[in-house]
Structure formats: structure tokens, C-alpha cells
């Protein structure tokens, strides 16, 4: 799936995103060997995310999506404890502190307690 196709798919869902953000999404979810395109499997990871985006207020979508792709370190379309820990370590936090803060954050943000934070849960968390 190319940039244009992704943009089309998003348009069908009534979502328009800045080109820079589209590129960031493709760059993020394009798995090795990276080819600048999202194949079906890669797009499937993204599609629940894209559907969930609709549930988020239009004015907040881009901001939330930006945070989401920054935090989804293993690129599976969800944020879990591991992602949070890695993200915190990547900004210089000690491993032990990162583990503790990740656990607290996911307890608060993971509304249905399934161990995964979706983009909708992240949006609610960021509003707190
Ligand atoms: Ca690819
Ligand atoms: Ca993840
Ligand atoms: Ca959850």
C-alpha cells in the first residue's frame, strides 16, 4: 500500500491527516525489509488503529496519532508495558524507574485491562 493508497483508505474513513504524519505512519509500520510501501500484513496492523482513530475527536487525532506511533516501539499497533518501558528508556530513564512508571501508566491508561493500550485508550489517557 503506497502513501496515496493509505491516504485514500483514510479518506474513506473520513480521516485526513497531514502528509508528514502519513509518511511517519508508513515509515513506522513498514517492517524490514523496508520498501516504503505497506503490504497487506503491515496495513492490517494499522487498520484497527485507523478505525479506532474515528472514535477520537477530529481536533485531537493528529496529536494522539503522533504520540501513539512514538510509543508503539515494537510496531504492532498496540502499546503495552514493554513499549512504554522502551520509550521511557529511550528518553534517558533508568531501567528500574522506567519499569515502575510503565506499570503505573498502563494500569491507568489500559481501560479494559487487557494489557494493551489502544489509540482510543491513549486518547482518553492524554485528556486526563
Ligand atoms: Ca513494507
Ligand atoms: Ca506495541
Ligand atoms: Ca486495553
UniProtKB/TrEMBL annotation:
- EF-hand domain boundaries: 59-94
Record's keyword terms, sorted: Calcium
SUPFAM superfamilies listed in its UniProt record: EF-hand
Which parts of the chain are coiled coil?
none
Q: Which PROSITE patterns match?
A: EF_HAND_1, EF_HAND_2
Domain of life of the organism encoding this protein? Eukaryota
Please name the Gene3D superfamilies in this protein's record. Answer: EF-hand (1.10.238.10)
Q: Which InterPro entries match?
A: EF-hand-dom_pair, EF_Hand_1_Ca_BS, EF_hand_dom
Please list the GO terms describing molecular function. calcium ion binding
| Protein name as catalogued | Uncharacterized protein LOC109463875
The lineage is:
Eukaryota, Metazoa, Chordata, Cephalochordata, Leptocardii
Amino acid at each position: 500500500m503506497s502513501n496515496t493508497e493509505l491516504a485514500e483508505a483514510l479518506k474513506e474513513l473520513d480521516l485526513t491527516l497531514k502528509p508528514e504524519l502519513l509518511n511517519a505512519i508508513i515509515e513506522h509500520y513498514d517492517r524490514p525489509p523496508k520498501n516504503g510501501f505497506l503490504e497487506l500484513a503491515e496495513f492490517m496492523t494499522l487498520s484497527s488503529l485507523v478505525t479506532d482513530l474515528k472514535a477520537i475527536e477530529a481536533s485531537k487525532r493528529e496529536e494522539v496519532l503522533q504520540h501513539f506511533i512514538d510509543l508503539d516501539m515494537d510496531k504492532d499497533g498496540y502499546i503495552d508495558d514493554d513499549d512504554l518501558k522502551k520509550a521511557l528508556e529511550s528518553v534517558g530513564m533508568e531501567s528500574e524507574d522506567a519499569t515502575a512508571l510503565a506499570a503505573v501508566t498502563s494500569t491507568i491508561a489500559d481501560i479494559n485491562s487487557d494489557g494493551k493500550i489502544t489509540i482510543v485508550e491513549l486518547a482518553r489517557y492524554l485528556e486526563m
